[in-house]
Amino acid sequence: MTTLRIPRRQAREPSLQAPFQKAGISGASGAAYDLRVRLQTKERAAARIGELACRGLDLVSFWDGAAELISSAVPHYMAPCWFTLDPASLLVTSHYDHGQIPELPPEWLAHEYYEDDVHNLTSVARSERGISTLHEASGGDPSRSPRWHANMQYGGDQELLVALRTRAGEAWGVLGLYREPGERQFDREELELLRALSPLLAEGARRGLLVGEASDPEGPHAPGLVVLDRDWGVESLTPGVERWLAELPDGEWATRRKLPPVVLAVAGRALRTVDKRDAPGEVAVARVLSREGRWIVLHGAALVAGGARRVAVIVEPAHPARIAPLLMAAYGLTEREQEVTRLVLSGDSTAEIAERLFVSPHTVQQHLKSIFEKTGVRSRRELVGKVFFGHYEPRLRDNERRAAERQPLRGGPIRGEPTRQARLPGS
After folding, report:
1. Helix (H) or strand (E) segment spanning residue 236
2. Residue 231: exposure state from Cβ atoms within 10 A (0-12, 13-18, ≥19)
3. CA dist., res. 165 & res. 127, Å (int)
4. For the residues of 329-356, what is the DSSP string, one character each?
5. For residues 270 and 400, which has the higher predicted lDDT (pLDDT)?
6. Which residues pair with residue 105 across a beta bridge?
7. How many CB atoms neighbour CB 237 within 10 A?
8. What region does 83 belong to: left with phi over 0, alpha with psi -120 to 50, or beta?
9. What pLDDT is attached to residue 157?
10. Mind listing the domains of the chain with CATH numbers?
């Protein structure tokens, strides 16, 4: 039987003077694995990451467990770099690279959201393929990319970005891996492995955020969490979930400890999608009109660990996209202007926006003119930067602190008024 041999990383300390080198590059040898070993590695990594996604881990713990498996299958330098994205806008909400660089430098964020480049998180997250290297994106000439020049100042050459998308197509994050100059390029087998792992990593990220927000609520409208055991008994509840259970129809939790039928239905549906212990299954979703006349969403996720099978049901008020009410409150955008802004944030062109909204490109341009006036910007790029730095960077910074303190991470933008005006690079 073929024995898997994992190349060791170079035993050198990472440079602390390399703020742009946000992920890592392997010093591993370039010896190719044979096909049989690659298949074994792929199967082993997929099985173990699927098992991790079933455990209901907080996000940092999930990233830590997944990093070891990724590193054994796709050699790279330092540690993997993980980003979570808001699926509604594709803007970054958290960053974690296992303590190598606890805080993303402001110049990296300015480059990502104020400058045009051939390679960035949003373009990969919305691409059909969902995976890209900087060498590919630049047509084999990475010197065309300002991103490459910045990375090369700190010894980084190759950049690989992988969109973490669920099977339903929602992008919940991006994985970044790097290699040094002179190392072999990421090959087709490695790219295909990461594409295969992407839905499993996305499910782990999605569950980590949902469970994290429910277990450490941010406000009165935060999600609640119910964990059921294998006999459908209530194993645990998070504070505040009782209010959501009371609003769901046909339940009598307050008086008889009877769960609403929809909670059990979502839990059962989630468990039915689990084929084996190392497959996380699907997140079951139900949308229900409450007794108070508002819509409530339930997410059911199987938890399989140590041979025991449980299920977590997260209950929260429905919000089609958290960014929409935020844009209305902060800038007074109309409903259609909010739709246009959301599509601009996720990288759609004027023609693509017109096609999605069934209007003419001229109409889109008129909406953009109004949006620019209301938000005080002059271009689409400035609009993206203003929304990110006003509403998403505070979330990113809070999550960086929470990751360092091993607290649950949170998704979506910071609610309320912008914390500060976004600044153009060099201003």
Report:
1. strand 234-237
2. exposed
3. 11
4. HHH---HHHHHHHHHHHTT--HHHHHHH
5. 400
6. none
7. 15
8. beta
9. 79
10. 25-213 (3.30.450.40), 219-317 (3.30.450.20), 323-404 (1.10.10.10)
Q: Residues 6 or more apart from 294 whose CB is under 8 A from it?
A: 247, 317, 318
CB 387 within 8 A of CB 89: yes
- 3-class secondary structure, 220: coil
* Per-residue model confidence as pLDDT tens digits over 107-163: 889 999 998 899 999 999 999 999 999 999 999 898 888 888 877 776 677 899 999
Tell me the β-bridge partners of 300.
284, 313
**Backbone phi, psi, residue 13, to 5°:** -80, 140
- CA–CA distance, 150 with 6 (Å, rounded to integer): 30
DSSP 283-328: -EEEEEE-TTS-EEEEEEEEEEETTEEEEEEEEEE--S-THHHHHH
pTM attached to this predicted model:
0.81
